Automatic annotation (TrEMBL):
Superkingdom, natural source: Eukaryota
Gene3D superfamilies cross-referenced by the UniProt entry: Rhodopsin 7-helix transmembrane proteins (1.20.1070.10)
Protein name per the record: G-protein coupled receptors family 1 profile domain-containing protein
G-protein coupled receptors family 1 profile domain boundaries: 15-258
Length: 279
C-alpha cells in the first residue's frame, strides 16, 4: 500500500501544480472557470497534504499516536479545506449555469470582481462553517478508549469516542446545502440544454460542463455516503474506504479530468515542456 499511496500523493502534487502553472502561463486560460479551478487545485493539494504524510507513516508503522491538540488541528484543516471545495464546486456550478443559460450576459454577470468575491467567500465560509462544528465538538466529553478507528482524525470516528449525546453535532454535520446549490445549478443547466433545438448545440453545451460534472459526482458521491450514514461500527470500515476515495483518489483525478478534455491546457503544457519551463 505504501507505494500506491505515495504515488497518488506525488501525482496529486504534480498534477495540480502543473495545472496551476499552465493557467498562470497562458493568457487565453485567464477565464473565470480556470480562475476557480486554480483555487480548487490549491484546496486539493492542501487537504491531501494534511492527510497523506500521516497515512504513509501509519502504513509503515501499523498505526501512530497523535496528541488531542494535533488531532483537532488536523480535523479542522481537513474539514475547512473540504468545505472550501464544496463552496468552490458550487461556485463553479453557478459559473457553468451562467455560461450556458445566460451566454450574452456572462461577461457582465461573471466579471473579475465577482470571481474574486465568490472565491474569497468560499475561503472565509469554510472557517465559519467548520468552526461552528468544532465548537460543538469541544463541548463533548471523551471517556475512552482513545483509539480512532480511521487513518486520520475524521469527524465520525472522533464523535464515536464520546460518551455524551452527539445528536446535535451530528445533525450539523449532515448539512448538505453546498450539494443542493450545485444540483440546483445543474438542474437549470440541463433544463436549458434540453430546450436547444439542434443536437450539435446540445452536445456543445453539455461538453462545456462535462468535466466539472464528473468531478462533482466523484467528490460528492463518496463523501455523501460517508457523512449520510450513521457512525456505527458496521459502517466504519466502509467509511474508511470511501474516505480514501474522496481524500486520496479524487485529488489526482481532478487535473486529469480537466486537462485531458481541454485542448488549451494540453497545448500550454506541451509548450511549457518543449521550452524546458521557460516561457
Amino acid at each position: 500500500l505504501f507505494p500506491l499511496f505515495l504515488s497518488l500523493y506525488v501525482v496529486t502534487l504534480c498534477g495540480n501544480l502543473l495545472l496551476i502553472l499552465a493557467v498562470q502561463k497562458s493568457p487565453h486560460l485567464h477565464t473565470p472557470m480556470y480562475f476557480f479551478l486554480c483555487h480548487l487545485s490549491c484546496v486539493d493539494v492542501g487537504y491531501t497534504s494534511s492527510i497523506a504524510p500521516q497515512l504513509l507513516r501509519e502504513v509503515v508503522a501499523g498505526g501512530v499516536t497523535i496528541s488531542f491538540t494535533a488531532c483537532v488541528v488536523q480535523l479542522y484543516a481537513v474539514g475547512a479545506l473540504l468545505t472550501a471545495e464544496c463552496f468552490l464546486l458550487a461556485v463553479m456550478s453557478y459559473d457553468c449555469y451562467l455560461a450556458i443559460c445566460w451566454p450574452l450576459r456572462y461577461t457582465v454577470l461573471m466579471d473579475s470582481r465577482t470571481c474574486v468575491e465568490l472565491t474569497v467567500g468560499s475561503w472565509i465560509g469554510r472557517f465559519l462553517f467548520v468552526g461552528a462544528v468544532l465548537i460543538l465538538l469541544a463541548m463533548l466529553t471523551f471517556c475512552g478508549p482513545h483509539i480512532i478507528d480511521d487513518f486520520f482524525c475524521d469527524f465520525f470516528p472522533l464523535v464515536k469516542l464520546s460518551c455524551t449525546d452527539t445528536t446535535v453535532v451530528e445533525r450539523v454535520a449532515f448539512v448538505s446545502s453546498f450539494l443542493s446549490l450545485s444540483l440546483l445549478s445543474y438542474d437549470c443547466i440541463l433544463s436549458s440544454i434540453l430546450k436547444i433545438s439542434s443536437s450539435t448545440g446540445r452536445y456543445r453545451a453539455f461538453s462545456t460542463c462535462f468535466s466539472h460534472l464528473v468531478v462533482l459526482f466523484l467528490f460528492y458521491g463518496t463523501m455523501a455516503v460517508v457523512y449520510k450514514t450513521p457512525a456505527s461500527g458496521k459502517t466504519l470500515n466502509l467509511n474508511k474506504i470511501l474516505s480514501l476515495l474522496y481524500t486520496v483518489l479524487t485529488p489526482p483525478l481532478n487535473p486529469l479530468v480537466y486537462s485531458l478534455r481541454n485542448k488549451g491546457i494540453q497545448i500550454t503544457l506541451k509548450k511549457l515542456y518543449c521550452s524546458g519551463g521557460n516561457w
